[in-house]
Design brief:
The chain has about 500 residues and is an alpha+beta fold. It has a domain of about 290 residues. It has 16 helices and 15 strands. The radius of gyration is 22 Å and the shape is globular. One of its GO terms (cellular component) is cytosol.
């Protein structure tokens, strides 16, 4: 069990600004953009920390790791590396109405508020509200930033990419996501709605008519005892990777990646980038509606029938095999018939598996985990190679949105109020990150073995029925026909989350 120790301090003031680890010309930037006005120091974290998820490193450990690789945690926006640990969040999508005015306000009013990675690693340095910013290609163009960032999918935008993502056209998309009218997104995160609302109101007042609000989405971790769980009930964010230069002590089974997998211009990023883009990251946003009552009804109606299981246990097992984990986070590969909450809550064990077992043929056996299971489709582990391949990894930073299922919805087995996941991923390559996982892996009925079907959770075939095999451990050849997409894409956009120095030297001048 994790024990979080909060720093209980008297009312003091806090610099919420860039730490003084910049060198050379960057030191002037650091001094110029220290974080006034001063704020009261926090006494509890704005982040959540579910037992099952790997802990964030301490500031001391992270900076020691960063020093060994040259990573500058004071120049990287805070949301990129922390994963799925926000408590409450608001996504504020905007268009730039007056580029000249906005540039000035970006430097004077937004940059001093931007939260860095280093700031989030200690309660004593966290701001009252995290503020980050990212821009679409049309947003960068509006700011007269014309250099290619070396990613064609970012350049085209998500709406142009729609035919490749399994969505049934834009029928279900939020209208504001259709086209290229969104220039950027401001991310606000805190531990209370009031903190976020106050920050939004203050920044809107400062920005005036330089931007127009296009759309917003409020999101929040689910209430206890489901903190860290998505709306279907499964604990999320367990298998986010460790990043060299940031993660001090990777957990067993945790992917250990070069920083360039997530950050442009760092070791492991082989694409050609403009120098100013270093330490930025591509942010993929997708609003994913979840049909929870309908999903629960499907599990209730189709329990796995196996000796020793009650009907409810059979329904629970079907859901676990579709996801690849039990609701506690325990992987079915290690707990094949029943949930094991102790295993699920232990980050030293809940990722320590490869799908290989001594007495089974990896390419044929689905007794423990189906080939189509969500976690196996999106992280195949030994199915692709041993040791595990380093491509196809993303840093997931999403958060649930919408209310809990009402009694009426549960009784009628029908969703009447929208809820789902505000999906966020960071990567240095959209094609090698999000799109590989979604299009090439999750949406392919032949990955990684022919005929297994698409990912039963996020796999999509433009609204067509999905035929999945391997879900019944007693009969791997048995197929299940899914006629409802339990996850419905409401659209999104591709963004670039620049470093603080890039905002100061390139985007606001």
């Amino acid at each position: 069990m994790k024990i979080t120790i909060h720093n209980v301090l008297p009312a003091v003031v806090l610099f919420t600004g860039v730490a003084s680890t910049f060198s050379g010309h960057d030191s002037a930037f650091a001094l110029q953009h220290k974080r006034g006005p001063v704020k009261p120091r926090r006494v509890q974290s704005l982040l959540i920390n579910p037992d099952a998820q790997p802990d964030l490193p301490t500031a001391k450990a992270a900076n020691k790791a960063a020093a060994a690789t040259g990573l500058n945690l004071d120049d990287i926006q805070g949301d990129i590396l922390v994963g799925m640990k926000k408590n409450k969040q608001l996504f504020y999508f905007f268009s730039i109405a007056d580029p000249t005015d906005f540039k000035g306000k970006l430097a004077a009013d937004i940059l001093p508020l931007i939260t860095t990675t280093n700031q989030l690693l200690s309660v004593s340095t966290q701001p009252i509200t995290l503020v980050n910013i990212a821009f679409s290609q049309t947003g960068l163009t509006a700011l007269n930033v014309t250099e290619s960032l070396g990613d064609s999918f970012f350049a085209g935008g998500q709406f142009q990419d729609l035919p490749n993502l399994g969505d049934p056209g834009s029928t279900n998309w939020v209208p504001e996501f259709t086209g290229t009218g969104i220039h950027g997104v401001l991310l606000f995160a805190s531990d209370t709605d009031d903190n976020i609302n106050n920050s939004v109101a203050s920044l809107e007042s400062a920005l005036g008519d330089s931007i127009n609000k296009v759309y917003s989405l409020a999101a929040a971790a689910r209430p206890a005892p489901n903190v860290g769980h998505e709306h279907f009930g499964f604990l999320d964010g367990i298998s986010n990777p460790a990043i060299n230069g940031f993660t001090a002590n990777p957990m067993p089974g945790q992917s250990n990646l070069s920083a360039g997998t997530i950050l442009l211009g760092e070791t492991g990023d082989s694409a050609t980038r403009p120098a100013w883009a270093k330490d930025g990251s591509f942010l993929v946003f997708r609003q994913l509606k979840q049909l929870v009552p309908e999903f629960d009804k499907f599990l209730t109606d189709n329990p796995i029938v196996q000796h020793g299981l009650t009907r409810q246990q059979g329904s629970d097992l079907l859901g676990a095999r579709m996801v690849g984990r039990w609701k506690s986070g325990a992987p079915v590969d290690l707990a094949p018939l029943f949930d094991d909450p102790v295993l699920g809550a232990d980050p030293t064990r809940n990722n320590d598996f490869t799908f290989q077992h001594p007495n089974a043929v990896l390419s044929k056996n689905q007794t423990r985990c189906p080939f189509s299971a969500h976690i196996r489709k999106t992280r195949p582990r030994a199915d692709l190679s041993t040791p595990e391949v380093t491509f196809g990894h993303i840093m997931r930073a999403g958060i649930p949105y919408g209310p809990e299922v009402s009694a009426h919805e549960a009784a009628s087995n029908t969703t009447s109020t929208e809820r789902g996941l505000a999906f966020v991923s960071y990567q240095s390559s959209i094609s090698g990150g999000f799109r590989l996982l979604q299009q090439t892996w999750a949406d392919s009925a032949s990955f990684i073995h022919s005929g297994v079907g698409v990912d039963p959770i996020i796999g999509a075939l433009a609204g067509a029925p999905r035929v999945i095999s391997g879900l019944d451990p007693t009969n791997a050849a048995k197929t299940v026909r899914l006629t409802t997409d339990f996850v419905v894409s409401r659209g999104g956009e591709y963004f670039f989350s620049p470093s603080l120095s890039a905002i100061a030297s390139k985007l606001s001048v």
